[in-house]
Specification:
Belongs to the purine/pyrimidine phosphoribosyltransferase family. PurR subfamily. The protein has seven helices and twelve strands. It is α/β, with parallel strands linked by helices.
């Protein structure tokens, strides 16, 4: 790359870091890329680090030594995320969104890339300090949330299917009890999709009693995998007992009164 002025170099370096979150980038990469001395690169990174911190964009961590470099960790402060989630709660608190069984219609909200992107950033902030190998979700509505989260954590996504697909080869299938209606259902994961003893973050769009998430946890036992965290976009607060206890929710369906057409949606336990 041609030699750039510092102002242009700062812009290009920032973009380079933003699209490579959680990746260790040696200083020599920048020095060679911009044909600049490491001392100049270090000064540039100090400026970027300060701006990231002051503007709540994340952390720029420096690792010393011959194998060192810098690593960008996207993190959004809760105080910055809360107004966004409160606005989403207002959008969801419309009686017409309530479906039979007290499920919630959210496809239109989750159809906006900007919304999905922000939710993924919040989840990535919540689980940024965990040692994770892969993001897991179950088809279908949790898929965009999982990919958005994975983009900020720079991790692959594994999708659990409701049934085995011939195009995915041999698979592990289990039966699980749906927490909401107590029905026996099936979920399947291709053997090639997940390495044994992987460390997994589960992301889902909606959790009522937690039967589906518990099913994924049971499925992961077949791969000797470890669940490092669980994130749900909206949880139902009108369930006497959740099958899953340790989870992060961004919004909570606190009250549904079908007779009076009243719905209350509040920020989830992440903001408690």
């Amino acid at each position: 790359m041609k030699k750039l002025k510092r102002s242009a170099r700062l812009v290009e370096m920032t973009q380079y870091l933003l699209v490579r979150p959680h990746s260790l980038i040696p200083l020599t990469t920048f020095a060679e890329r911009y044909n600049s001395a490491k001392s100049s690169i270090s000064e540039d990174l100090a400026i970027i680090k300060e701006v990231f911190h002051d503007e709540g964009l994340g952390e720029l961590n420096t690792l010393a030594g011959a194998a060192g470099g810098v690593k960008f960790i996207p993190k959004t402060p809760k105080a910055v995320s809360l107004p966004f989630i409160e606005n989403i709660c207002r959008e969801l608190a419309v009686p017409e969104r309530i479906l039979p069984g007290e499920y919630m219609y959210m496809s239109d909200v989750l159809g906006h890339p900007s919304v999905i992107n922000e939710i993924g950033k919040i989840f990535a902030s919540a689980f940024a300090d965990l040692d994770i190998d892969v993001i897991m979700t179950v088809e279908t509505k949790g898929i965009p949330l999982a990919y958005a989260t994975a983009a900020f954590l720079n991790l692959p996504v594994v999708i659990v299917r409701r049934d085995n697909r011939v195009t995915e080869g041999s698979a592990v299938s289990i039966n699980y009890v749906s927490g909401s209606n107590k029905r026996i259902q099936t979920m399947s994961l291709a053997r090639r999709a997940l390495k044994e003893e992987s460390k997994v973050l589960i992301i889902d769009d909606f959790m009522r009693a937690g039967g589906t998430i518990q099913g994924m946890k049971d499925l992961l036992q077949e791969f000797r995998a470890t669940v490092k965290g669980v994130g749900v976009f909206v949880e139902s607060g009108e369930v006497e007992e959740h099958l899953v206890e340790d989870y992060v929710s961004l919004a909570r369906l606190a009250n549904v009164d079908s007779r009076n057409k009243s719905v209350t949606v509040l920020p989830g336990n992440y903001f408690d």
